[in-house]
Design goal:
Immunoglobulin-like, four-stranded antiparallel sheet, 26 strands, alpha+beta
Length: 580
């Protein structure tokens, strides 16, 4: 039998050639607009044809700078390069495996949809074995379509007698197929086992050869715990956050309408006031309208930005949840296990990015702070004193300022501080507090090294930020107000090591520095004859250069050795210390 002839991963259909439109959109690649050919799942849980992924322009490429060793093949050199591409659907930056797009997980659910769509749209199918008869059934193990004669021959052969065979008419009536997932290395072998050390589904032949020393369990025994992990991420962490995002997005929509109404009402007040004056006052009124439009555009742009951010986060989580739901509800054990790795990584990433709930917790600005004061003095206009001022006391993250050395420099293990001053669009300090301030301090190389910070509200528009770094290095300091970075954020923080200061003196020898005292000892191993306990010039153990009396270091600007090191050396009678 030629099982590879109709392997699901190589399946094509004449529907593409004839121009027929597939009924099921899940069977169509969004890039080439054709039925999937070798569908692969990107880390963002979007599926595309293998060829379509291979043709994506690399967004970023990381690899060793040096040339490969002699004899290294092109394939081996490519395996050492990490390629990042942009997902055509969500524009996420996704990393391809070292082996290239072929190393991505296969979307077996998409293959099911492609096969079902082929059955429905292509009409009568020919027999894959004899090529003459009309196919009436399909072997799910060999993945071939059979006519009546070949079906009986398939049943008579001992090797294929136990294969599961389905009628094509029955397959066409189904809304979803669950075809067996076959091993890529051993055609005809179904992935019924799961290798726990390799975290991969395998067939019986793989388990007996390549994974003979590994613990391989039946897929139905381990599917429960892996499915529960996906289900927990969806139901416990992501689904509740979806509701919050939807509610916040609705608030943004309502705020946009309220902002527009508020601006229109204020504009009406301005026009009513301006009509009571002569040309100078009319000119002043037009100036007020221009100022109001600037404020309107500024706040509207901020709301549009918040709306776009919320929509993107909402879309990412919705697509991740929909993919996980479909995988759990429609996928077989092997299908779930095949896509389990990429699914868990994507869902965990989405859950981690939504932990702080910063976007979902923001309070949109509906323009309530815009106020027109008809009695406010506005100076002279064409020689006439005019009144009427638009007040807009709203916090502007781009005008906020930060004072204090603790923003750029700190010492390991020591408390550091800096002050955030919130200001409005005019640069004036806000007179109240209670703003949503978020400060995050993360090591630039060790992403799991996070410094805890404390934000103290001074209730006058300023906030004192305190933190104590436990490790030296370069950090990124994120300072956000109302879910937006202040100007200059993220900042670069340099945390230096805490040096141990010397407790002695930097001298030439204990004999000179103590005025010839016999009991004066030194941190170096030097001694003098005649009962002197310390070092002297040209005597045994003297380092031959100036040194510290506390630890014996010959470098003046250095760190003093720890007490434990001094004690350990003193036990061997090589190092003794004394205050001179």
């Amino acid at each position: 039998m030629s099982g590879d002839k109709d392997h699901p991963e190589q399946l094509t259909t004449s529907a593409n050639v004839k121009g027929a439109q597939p009924v099921n959109p899940r069977a169509v690649c969004s890039v080439c607009k054709r039925l999937y050919r070798e569908p692969k799942i990107l880390p963002c849980l979007h599926t595309f044809c293998l060829d379509c992924i291979s043709q994506l322009e690399p967004f970023h490429r990381d690899g060793p700078e040096q040339e490969g060793e002699d004899g290294e093949t092109t394939k081996e050199k490519a395996a050492r390069v990490s390629v990042t591409v942009l997902c055509p659907d969500c524009d996420s930056e996704v990393d391809l495996p070292p082996s290239g797009p072929a190393g991505l997980s296969t979307d077996h659910l998409a293959l099911d949809d492609v096969f079902l769509e082929t059955l429905v749209s292509n009409g009568a199918l020919g027999c894959d074995l004899c090529g003459d008869g009309r196919a009436e059934s399909r072997c799910e193990v060999c993945c071939v379509n059979l006519c009546e004669f070949c079906f009986k021959a398939h049943r008579r052969q001992t090797r294929t007698a136990s294969h599961s065979i389905q009628q094509l008419q029955d397959l066409k009536s189904r809304s979803h197929l669950r075809r067996p997932v076959l091993c890529a290395l051993h055609p005809g072998q179904e992935l019924r086992l799961f290798c726990q050390p390799c975290d991969l589904p395998v067939c019986l032949e793989c388990a007996a050869t390549l994974h003979s020393e590994h613990r391989c369990c039946p897929a139905h025994e381990v599917i429960g715990c892996h499915s529960d992990r996906i289900r927990t991420l969806v139901n416990v962490r992501l689904r509740p956050h979806l509701q919050k995002l939807e509610q916040t997005l609705q608030k943004v929509e309502v705020s946009q309408e309220a902002l527009q109404m508020r601006v229109e009402d204020t504009a009406s007040e301005v026009r009513t006031f301006a009509r009571g004056y002569a040309s100078a006052v009319e000119t002043h009124g037009l100036a007020l309208l221009r100022r109001l439009e600037e404020l309107h555009l500024q706040r509207r742009n901020q709301l549009l930005l918040q709306r776009a951010q919320l929509q993107q986060v909402l879309l990412d989580i919705q697509e991740g949840v929909e993919f996980a739901d479909r995988l759990l509800s429609c996928g077989s054990d092997a299908e779930i296990l095949s896509a389990k790795g990429v699914t868990l990584r994507r869902l965990s990433s989405l859950a981690q990015s939504s932990c702080d709930g910063q976007l979902a917790a923001l309070v949109p600005d509906d323009g309530g702070s815009i106020r027109f004061d008809p009695r406010g003095l506005a100076g002279d206009m064409s020689g006439f004193p005019v009144v009427g001022v638009i007040h807009f006391k709203a916090l502007d993250p781009n005008k906020c300022t930060i004072d204090g050395e603790g923003l750029q420099q700190a010492n390991e293990g020591q408390r550091a501080h800096f002050t955030l001053v919130c200001r409005d669009s005019a640069g004036d300090q806000m007179a109240r507090g209670a703003d949503h301030v978020l400060v995050s301090i993360v090591h630039r190389e060790k992403k799991n090294c996070v410094v805890e910070s404390t934000v103290l509200d001074n209730n006058d528009g300023s906030y004192k930020v305190s933190y104590t770094p436990d490790e030296a290095g370069m950090y990124s300091v994120w300072v956000c107000v109302k879910a937006q970075h202040v100007k200059g954020s993220p900042f670069v923080l340099n945390v230096t090591k805490k040096l141990r200061h010397h407790t002695g003196i930097f001298h030439c020898c204990s004999f000179c520095s103590s005025g010839g005292a016999k009991e004066a000892r030194c941190g170096c191993p030097g001694t003098m004859p005649g009962g002197f306990q310390g070092c002297g010039h040209s005597h045994k153990g003297h380092p031959g250069k100036p040194h510290w009396s506390c630890c014996g270091s010959t470098t003046e600007k250095s760190e003093c050795l720890p007490a434990s090191v001094i004690k350990a050396v003193s036990a061997g009678k090589h190092l003794r210390t004394v205050e001179l």
